Amino acid sequence: MAHAEYKKWLEPDNLIKLRSWARDGLTNEQIAKKIGVKRQTFQRWLSTYSDMSDALKKGKEIVDAEIEDSFISVMKKHTLTTTQYKMVKKDDFNLNAERAKFANIYKLDHPKATKQEILIATAENVEVYEKIPISKTVTEVDPNASAIIFWLKNRRPDIYRDQTFQKLNEANARKTLAEAQLSEAQLKALEENDDPSNKTIIVDDIREISNDSNSETESRD
Which end of the chain is less congested by CB atoms within 10 angstroms, N or C? Predict the structure, then answer.
């Protein structure tokens, strides 16, 4: 195994890959097999490198549930906590203990590594400074009106759907009904015009028919 094999899996792209595998349901043993190391080695990596263990933890969480919880939280009045930190140098005892622990684990994963390589790896991966919280600010945040509207429109569309669209739909329905009734009336009128028995006889036409009848009678006489 290459001495820097673990470093490859601390790169951002590979951390995303680890998170994706965990989200797909792969176990730690299956992930270790995919990256080509023993399960015990992979477990030591997770104990040593927080970025790697955090990636797996994040992947195994139900992302959709997290997003939904966040969305619901902004619809309610809530508090937002902002923490300020400062970088403080670790005391010698704790720093040396962390370095010794890392060096021992590194030697197990890299049995052929030289003393110089172990020292360099330790210096690169054990931070001399740590973040110490110095103050916290808690702010009350009002509910997000846009999020509430979005939620209600989708969860209760029968009550909270957009009135503009509702009125437009109603107007379109009335227009369609009126057009249907008009078409039916026009069709009925056309049918009546085609029926000879429904034709209207004008008074002048009656007089003309009467004169024609009298002329025929006189001719017979």
Answer: C
Query: Within the chain, where are the H helices?
Result: 5-8, 12-23, 28-35, 39-48, 50-60, 63-74, 92-109, 115-125, 145-155, 157-160, 163-194, 203-220
Task: Please write the tens of the pLDDT for every residue from 136-166.
Answer: 899 988 888 888 888 787 877 777 766 555 6
Backbone phi and psi for residue 140, each to the nearest 5 degrees, phi listed first: -85, 130
Count of C-beta atoms within a 10 Å radius of residue 153: 13
The residues pairing with 81 across neighbouring beta strands, listed in sequence order, are: 138
Q: How far apart are CA 192 and CA 195, in angstroms?
A: 5
Kindly give, in sequence order, each residue whose CB lies less than 8 Å from that of residue 132, ignoring residues fewer than 6 positions away.
85, 86, 87, 88
> What pTM was computed for the model?
0.38
Name residues whose C-beta falls within 8 Å of residue 80's C-beta, 6 or more positions apart in sequence.
Answer: 138, 139, 140, 141
Residues of the chain with pLDDT under 70: 1-4, 61-65, 161-169, 185, 187-221
The pLDDT value recorded for residue 92 is 92
